[in-house]
Amino acid sequence: MSASDRRVARGAPTQLATSLIPVKDWRPAGIEDLEPAAWAALRDTGNVAVVAGPGAGKTEFLAQRASYLLQTGLCPWPQHILAISFKRDAAANLGRRVAARAPEHASRFASMTFDAFTKGLVDRFALALPQDWRMSHGYDIRDAPKSEVDAFLNSVAFSAPQALDGKLGFQSGRFVSDIVGGWNLPESLPADDDIDPVSYAVREWWRARYLRPGRAEVDFVMINRLAELLVRAVPKLRRALRMTYPIVFVDEFQDTTSAQFSFLTSVFGEETAVTTVGDSKQRIMGWAGAVPEAVQRFTSTFNASTYRLAWNFRSSDALVGLQHVIASKLDPAAVRATSKATAEAGHEPAMLWTFSGEEREARYIADWIARDIAGSDRTPADFALIARQKVKDFEPLFRARLAAHGIRVRNDDARVGKLALQDLLKSETSRLFVGLLRLAHRPRGLAALWQEMSATLERVHGATDHETVQQRVSDDLSDLTTRLRAWLQAHPPSITSAADTVGKVLDLVDSAALRRYVRASAPGEEFDLVTDAFEARLETVLERADDWGVVLDEFESADAVVLLTTHRSKGLEYHTVFFLGIHGRQWWSLGNDPREGTSTFFVGLSRAAQRLVFTSDRSGRTGPISAFFAMLTEAGVAEVNQG
Q1: Domain spanning 317-408+559-641: which superfamily?
Q2: What is the pTM of this model?
Q3: Confidence band (pLDDT; 50, 70, 90) for 6?
Q4: By 3-state DSSP, what share of the chain in percent is helix, strand and coil, each rounded to 5?
Q5: Is the separation of the CB atoms in 579 and 293 below 8 Å?
């Protein structure tokens, strides 16, 4: 065995045989060009804050910046770039984008969520925690409901030392995100004789959930605090992280929490080039502890340069104009973006439709979508039904009315097992299972999927670019799909359970290696939880199909009208968006935080590329919601009564 083969067998890092591009010769791949502000931000090798509104192409910008730094050697081998996102699908999308733009360097680009990164650190280095914070029996992840936090705060106020009497009036809704999340864990637990109200309350919270007999219970705020303590208490770990990741990206920075900002500062506050991308007008996670004015705080703390992207690649000029009306309410100094999207002829870009009832609304919209699809080259996936909350209340009527036209609806907010459907479909485990089943069912005509599955299995088995290993993985994939195909042919959906199907896939794949891969590549993804959710979803669709191809189509429902909340729509785009329920019943909490409510409204309406339809009724327009109707009137949105 040669030296290089021994390195491959050990899983040691091997430098790719790629030539670097001189900085002056580097050009973007996959797109024509970048806007001037993007070029300036891309070439800045220091700390950078990029302000990017809807449709600005922030994912593409980050992918191009990663390619630039990797391909020019400004991020030299073997160092990596760490990209942190808030949503798993956003992290996966960015990772795929970099792999497409700079495939030879993709292994040096790590894209994951904040929660995944911090959980990975705690799982790997828990034994290095200071003595007072070490776990003895592992932990379970569970968010405490508001009622439980209320009970805890009442109890701790009653049992507090006399010196703290009357000083523990914390709000339960913000206690975990702001108080627990804003407290840096000391290496030793504070004593009773010299403790302030915050330290006392948070210490008791940790004692009740974490420092107790048996298994600990934590949420991701607590995991974040443990990870921050780890890197602070173990200087070697912090140095190793900074050496491995000299460059860090943080997406959707406006939604950064106190705990996350503290962690970022503690780990990468020195010697690391940090790039943040965000837009304060799209700050919709204040309820979860997002830091007010996060971008300004970052530029001050990290001495970062600010660049503002001015182009909108998603929306037509008319829709950009509408977006600017709402944006100016959030930021009077907002500059109207320049639309780079070609407006399609024959569309009314924005309308407000009113209906007499929900049945009439669902029927009219379903008929309208069906006619539009029949008269164009659009597909159901070009349409989205977005609502502020409780989208499950819209699902039955829209599912029935669209089904009458042979059109599927996919509720991305639906719970499947313990996951939302959107999270299941975007998970690494689910993508692998579906991909293998598709290749087994249809052996030809899926070259791109074959390459994706082959690349995934290479990573599962720890392979590199070594040709011998790659060929072995390709042969293994061919054998796996052949055996799985024979099993599918002998087990039609009508007589097969989801549990048997999942079990067969796991039998054919090295499940232990798959678990290790998921733990390393998607640390926030619970393998068993995703597998259970996959099985639950598969069981549901098995009841509706008698062919494996149809089963997989139903499972993914990729060609479906999507129903989702504004929060789940973040970062997505659709040709035509129906923004449902612009009335006081959907927006009952608007008066509690008008700014965040307006930001949520802004996020939802800015998903549209060509057409945007708001729906409402004639009631529920008084109070805080009246501000939305005033904005639509100012933007020139016509109201049409549809009966």
Answers
A1: P-loop containing nucleotide triphosphate hydrolases (3.40.50.300)
A2: 0.88
A3: very low
A4: 55, 15, 35
A5: no
